[in-house]
Write a structure and sequence with these properties.
41% of the residues lie in helices and 16% in strands. It is an alpha/beta fold. An 8-stranded parallel β-sheet has the order 3-2-1-8-7-6-5-4. Helix 1 links the parallel strand 1 and strand 2. Helix 1 runs parallel beside helix 2. The longest helix has 18 residues. It is globular and about 45 Å long. Bound molecules: 2-phosphoglycolic acid (PGA). The site of 2-phosphoglycolic acid has 13 residues, from strand 8.
């Protein structure tokens, strides 16, 4: 069975709850495309109102982060069952901004991934190299290490349902999109790594997104690559352009 594309918006720290409702209402008619799973990952405070606004549409509302404990004295964190209680099905884990500004590591990413699966939430697991790492020629080694640690103790059945987002850090928010060949090369290496950890079937089922300055112009070629199953989109997910990105195949 061919993999269904998954295109997710990552709103980051943008839009107040009322602005979020307005944006969901604006984008709702533009992002209809039955060939694609469409996810809007929004700030935690906007999850509930965005979900109300998205009712009756093809949009799933996801979270941008989650903690790896069930409950307790972790001031400011969001527990997995808080997300499932309101119907969240996707959570971004280990975005490079969380790694850079909030000290997330491959180990905390792994704990969060395991916790998300335990609660039936699909993690969108982020990986990606810095410009220095790319220039040093260690991109693939680096990504393989991130993937291997992220998937420690994840079962093949769980891994099949995971989403991985390959996001070169130098391409995030810079307008500098990776070339199609660069993006495909790394997404293929990720699939090969998953095959090595698990098996061919798991590798064929897992969905791998490209992220980093995806635009309505770059999306059609990127998403046509054999190992790129959609995108994680930051800046352009806050604009009507996101409708064109989701409808990259029309
Ligand atoms: P960008 O962000 O599309 O604005 O580069 C992508 C991301 O950080 O997920």
């Amino acid at each position: 069975m061919p993999r269904k594309k998954i295109i997710a918006g990552n709103w980051k720290m943008n839009k107040t709850p009322s602005e979020a409702v307005a944006l969901v209402n604006e984008l709702k008619p533009l992002v209809a495309n039955e060939d694609v799973d469409v996810v809007f990952c929004v700030p935690a405070i906007s999850i509930i109102p965005a979900m109300e606004a998205a009712k009756g549409s093809n949009i799933s509302i996801g979270a941008e982060n989650m903690y790896f404990q069930e409950s307790g004295a972790y001031t400011g964190e969001i527990a997995p069952n808080m997300l499932t209680d309101v119907g969240v099905k996707y959570v971004i884990i280990g975005h490079s901004e969380r790694r850079e500004y909030f000290a997330e590591t491959d180990e905390t990413v792994n704990k969060k991934v395991l916790k998300a699966f335990e609660h039936g939430i699909t993690p969108i697991i982020c990986c990606g190299e810095s410009l220095t790492q790319r220039e040093q020629g260690i991109t693939i080694d680096w990504i393989r290490q991130q993937i291997k640690i992220a998937f420690l103790d994840v079962t093949p059945e769980q891994a099949k349902t995971a989403v991985i987002a390959y996001e070169p850090i130098w391409a995030i928010g810079t307008g500098k999109v990776a070339t199609t060949a660069q993006a495909q090369e790394v997404c293929k290496a990720i699939r090969d790594c998953i095959e090595e950890i698990y098996d061919k079937d798991t590798a064929q089922q897992i969905r791998i997104q490209y992220g980093g300055s995806v635009s309505k112009d770059s999306a059609p070629e990127l998403f046509a690559q054999p190992d790129i199953d959609g995108g994680l989109v930051g800046g352009a997910s806050l604009k009507p352009d996101f409708g064109a990105i989701v409808n990259y195949n029309k």
